[in-house]
Structure prediction request, 146 residues.
Amino acid sequence: MSDAENETVFAKIIRGEIPCHKVYEDEHVLAFLDVAPLSEGHTLVIPKEAAATLDQLSETSAAAIGRVLPKIARAVLEQTGAEAFNILQNNGSRAHQAVFHVHFHVIPKFEDGSGLGIGWSAGQLDSAAGRSLADALRKRLGGTEP
Prediction:
């Protein structure tokens, strides 16, 4: 990744060049309140590693995020009193990613409707196409036949 690609607002926050309302930090992860929240407690969880999309993230950083995401979600729920939440993670501009540094949104959902709104236009998986795709993916992942 080039220096220009690494120069996101999140890189500046990690380096302390832009202030944030930090809620958690360790060697690999930083979490802070979103400055344009969808609801109270909307928190961003980011790796300190510069990676634009999840598929580019190292296993070490991915594991670190995986370890702290539930802890942060629990803290947000307990502090805000929300009983539900969404975890949102976008990859690429077509998937609505605006900052090209991996980040997870923890978005509390409240009875008043504040939080993330989602439209879901579900299709239907053809059995033969599903079998073929699952086989191809398993081969890419080095798995065996079911």
Remarks:
- The radius of gyration is 18 Å.
- The longest strand covers residues 104-109.
